[in-house]
Every structure is written in C-alpha cells, then in structure tokens.
C-alpha cells in the first residue's frame, strides 16, 4: 500500500484539466433490484470499526496519501455570508493549495497540484469561473434549492441551467428526501433524470443527505436509483444535516457503486461531504475507497471530498512532516 501511495501521489495529473471517464447515461429503473437491497448492520459496523487499526501509513507514505487527497478536494464555501472576495481568495487557494516551500521540500515542486474543484452557490459561479480561468479547475455549483431541495421542480431545473450557462462544469444537486422516506422510487428516478437532462454536458453529483434518510437500507436504495437515473457521482451530504459523512454510510454507498458497475459496466464516483476536517480522517476514507473499489477510485475523476478546513489541516500535517514541528492552524488559511 505504501508503494502505491507514493507512486500515486507522485504521478498525480494536473487535476482539473477535465474529466477522463465517460458520463453515466443511466439505465431503466429496475424496482426489483432496488427493493432487493438489504444491509447487514452488524457486519457493516464491524467492517468500518476495524479499518483504522488495520490500515495506517507513516512518514513519506502518509505525505503522499495526503497530497493525493488534496487533488480530490472540492474546496467549498457555502455560507450565508459568502462574498465575491471570499470566493476569489478560495479560488486562489485552489490553484496553489500547498505552500511552494513545502512542495519543494517534498520533492513535488515541479508538480501542478491543485484541488479537484471549487464548489459555490450559483450566485458565485461566474466569479469562480473568472478567477479560475486557465487553471483547468472545474467550478461546481450546488443547485436544486440547496440544501433542503424543497423549491418547485421547475425552479430547480432553471437553477441548474443558469449555473451551466455561467460556466459550472459540475452540478451538485439535492434529491427530494420525501421520495426516499415514502419509498416513491419512480418519483426519485424521474426527478434525477430531469436534473441530468438540465445539466447538459456538466457532470452531476447527487447529494443524498444520508443523515436525513433514517436507515442504511434507504441509503443503499437511494444510491442505486440515483445511479440508474444518470448520476455521475453520489454524494453523502449537503454538510448542513445533523449527521453528515460517516465511514458506515460510505461503506454502503461504495458497495452500491460496485454493484452498479458489476451489472452495467459503468463507473460512478463518490463524494463524502460534511464533517471531514482532519487529515487522519481523510486517510480512512481513502483506505476504504481503495479496498472496496480499487486504485482508480483514489483519483479525482472518481473521488471527491467536499471540504474546506480539511485542506488547512493537511497542509499543517505536511509542514510537520517536513519540519518536525506543528504550526498553529491559523497559519494555513484556506481563503
């Protein structure tokens, strides 16, 4: 694993230069397949509980895994007090997420390491597109009445279309949780198909808001229906729910991605979001991705992390690796 980690980070492409995998065209809704989904809770809990004890990386290998994680971050600001200048600062950090002196010390100074994307509200899409011009970094827009998703359906579609028109290359939509909670899988499928059509050439990440879905069985079924309807990524959370990304929910969603690929041949990406703020935590997500789906899912084409403060902690850990001393978190601003 250590050898793969080092090689993987060293070979990181200039991320953001475009997606390198085919769109998920979706398949017909198969209700039999959906309703057949079950989750063995005790087995799933044991699986994730043993992960930190079984998998660990240290020193150069850990630095390599963390650099790889940086390239998969959707650097995000989704606050009510967001401003144009804050978004511009965030975009500047996305272009150069790690201080040049640290990259030089790690032997990575010649690498064009960027974050995977910048994620903002529609109001700031054009600002981010302008700030990122020439970088190849995608702008992702949260859409469809984020975070609750309770605006009229036609308003959701117009919001998607407006964000694409302003230059967003990725659309993070929120599903209607009621469809999941009431078992109305046809409505969820139809909604997601409309979102996919409205997105045009942009890639679509379906936010399931797993903390609102009550059961892991619901998480599994919602994951599967969203992929059937054409989601290019499935994403845990808006970051605004009481419970956001967890390893347990991640395991269930990754196994649905694997099942979908085995049956259709289509690779779908995964994005945990909300509550991932420590470097040690993101390593566990990376380990689980590799064990469940394989090496390809460590790349930003198929793995994104919705985060903001995570980047500051990764940079802090990399400085400790280089200097042997921890610095204060405020010395590593993200925007």
From TrEMBL:
What domain of life does the native source organism fall in?
Bacteria
Which parts of this chain are annotated as the region Disordered? 1-21
Q: What reaction does this enzyme carry out catalytically?
A: 2-deoxy-D-ribose 5-phosphate = D-glyceraldehyde 3-phosphate + acetaldehyde
Q: Which InterPro entries match?
A: Aldolase_TIM (IPR013785), DeoC (IPR011343), DeoC/FbaB/LacD_aldolase (IPR002915)
Q: What is its EC number?
A: 4.1.2.4
Q: Which residues form a coiled coil?
A: none
**Gene Ontology CC terms:** cytoplasm
Example of a GO MF term: deoxyribose-phosphate aldolase activity
Pfam families in the record: DeoC
Q: Which UniProt keywords apply?
A: Lyase, Schiff base
Bias class Low complexity marks the residues at 1-18
**Pathway in which this enzyme or protein is active:** Carbohydrate degradation; 2-deoxy-D-ribose 1-phosphate degradation; D-glyceraldehyde 3-phosphate and acetaldehyde from 2-deoxy-alpha-D-ribose 1-phosphate: step 2/2
Which family, according to UniProt? Belongs to the DeoC/FbaB aldolase family. DeoC type 2 subfamily.
Identification of the protein by name: Deoxyribose-phosphate aldolase
Biological source species: Sinorhizobium alkalisoli
């Amino acid at each position: 694993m250590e050898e793969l980690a080092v090689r993987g980070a060293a070979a990181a492409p200039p991320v953001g230069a475009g997606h390198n995998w085919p769109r998920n065209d979706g398949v017909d809704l198969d209700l039999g397949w959906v309703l057949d989904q079950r989750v063995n809770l005790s087995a799933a809990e044991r699986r994730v509980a043993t992960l930190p004890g079984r998998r660990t990386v240290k020193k150069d290998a850990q630095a390599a895994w963390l650099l790889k994680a940086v390239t998969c971050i959707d650097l995000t600001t989704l606050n009510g007090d967001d401003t144009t200048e804050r978004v511009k600062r965030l975009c500047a950090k996305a272009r150069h997420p790690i201080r040049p002196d640290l990259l030089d010390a790690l032997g990575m100074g010649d690498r064009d390491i960027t974050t995977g994307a910048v994620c903002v509200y529609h109001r700031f899409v054009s600002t981010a597109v302008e700030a990122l011009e020439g970088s190849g970094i995608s702008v992702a827009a949260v859409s469809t009445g984020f975070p609750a998703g309770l605006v009229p359906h036609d308003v959701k579609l117009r919001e998607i279309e407006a964000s694409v028109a302003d230059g967003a290359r990725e659309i993070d939509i929120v599903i209607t949780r009621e469809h999941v909670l009431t078992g109305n899988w046809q409505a969820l499928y139809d909604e997601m198909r409309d979102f996919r059509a409205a997105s045009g050439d942009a890639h679509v990440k379906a936010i399931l808001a797993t903390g609102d879905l009550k059961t892991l069985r619901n998480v599994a079924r919602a994951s599967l229906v969203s992929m059937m309807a054409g989601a290019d990524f499935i994403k845990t959370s808006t970051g605004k729910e009481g419970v956001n990304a967890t390893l347990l929910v991640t395991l269930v969603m990754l196994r649905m991605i694997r099942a979908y690929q085995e049956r259709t041949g289509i690779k779908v990406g995964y994005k945990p979001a909300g509550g991932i703020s420590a470097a040690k935590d993101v390593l566990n997500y990376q380990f689980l991705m590799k064990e469940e789906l394989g090496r390809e899912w460590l790349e930003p084409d198929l793995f994104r992390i919705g985060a903001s403060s995570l980047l500051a902690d990764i940079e802090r850990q990399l400085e400790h690796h280089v200097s042997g001393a921890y610095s204060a978190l405020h010395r590593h601003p993200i925007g």
